Amino acid sequence: MYTMIDSCKTGWTIYEKREIKVVGIDLGKTSFHLHAVDDRGHTQMTKKQTRNQLKATMSNLSPCLVGIEACAGAHDWARRLSGYGHEVGTLIDTL
Q1: HSE value, Cβ hemisphere, 13 Å, CA-based, for 86
Q2: CA distances (Å), 67 to each of 14, 29, 85, in order?
Q3: Which of these, 16, 47, 63, 86, could form a disulfide with 81 (CB 3.0-4.6 Å)?
C-alpha cells in the first residue's frame, strides 16, 4: 500500500519507495541526467551519472517506459535500452 508522510515542521513530504514506471534521460557527452517516477508520478530517483553508471542503472531496472531526447546518440541509446527490456521513445525538441 502507498503511504505518504507529511511533516509540517520540516516541510518535507516522504513517499514510500515504489516501482519505477517512467524514466526520462537527458543525454550528454560525458554525463547523463535521469529522472524516474512511479505510476502515480511521484519522483523515485533523480541522478547525474556517467556513461558506465547509466548502463549499470538501466540494466538493473525492471522494464519501464524511457524517454530520451532526439539527438545524434539517441538511436544508439534506444537500441541499448531496448536490449535491457525497456520501451524507448525519442522526444523531438521543437521551438
Answers
A1: 27
A2: 25, 17, 14
A3: 86
